[in-house]
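Hi support team,

I submitted a single chain yesterday and got back a structure, but I'm not sure I'm reading the token output correctly. Could someone confirm the output below corresponds to the sequence I sent? I've pasted both exactly as they appear in my results page.

Thanks,
R.
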Amino acid sequence: MSLKAILLPTDFSTNSLNVNAIDYALELFKREPCEFYIINIQKASSFVSDDLMTMSSSATIYQTLIDAAIKSIKNIIIKVEKKYANNLHQFHSIVDYDNFIDGINQICETRHIDLIVMGTKGASGAEKVIFGSNTVRVMQRCNTPVLAIPNGCAFKGLERIAFTSNYATLYNKKDLKPLVDILGLYNSKIDILHLANKNDLSQDQENNKALLDACFRNAAHEFIDLSNKDIFKTIQDYLNSNEIKMLAMMNKKHSFLERLFTKHLVETFAFKIDIPFLVMENTA
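Hi R., thanks for writing in. Yes, this is the structure output for that exact sequence:
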């Protein structure tokens, strides 16, 4: 059983959001040997005002910010180690002083991160925000798979997972590994949702569908055709009516995810997602 490296970014801004994502990750991988890297990335412009910039002790200010972040992460680690007492899990604290995305990408490369788990704000009423801006940027600009956990979403098993596809993507086992691993952990059934206006597939689509069939051969899986009309409502209805516990997809140009992240569609659809959302990078 290989050791997984999981990155848990935190900004300390909303304690419940941070704790929720960490709790979900620890429950999800409770039977897996894991190294959890809890990271906070400090951004100078967020903290250093004009008044502080006039001071000569900028190095002291910097160190104070870093020390405070290190202390906060250590407190988080103390709490989760006491709460879970899982000998399979190890924890590390990282504080960086960098651009957020650059910092995340650098850590993912140097620590060989398998998965980033982040909390998302969720939204209700007039908020019109589903993912925090950092979560969206990580999904769009990081090469490491991301699992976004809606605020208030507790781990309650993973009996069924949905994966969206138009079969236009050339898949490979490496890109799908995070999903395949999770399926294996919980013997989950996976519903592969094909979104199209017609059911006739090109030869390339047939080949890609066959590749998916092979990748998921060890899991119970079913190919389901859904109408491409009002795609977001169609998926939302399917998730709700079939008790889906996680939604997964590949990040690729012209994909469902790209449409999802246009401003208009984010506001009208994505805030309704109240289950974990796994985004994997397509490298084919």
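A quick pointer for reading it: The two ends are 27 Å apart (CA to CA). Let us know if anything else looks off.

Best,
Support desk
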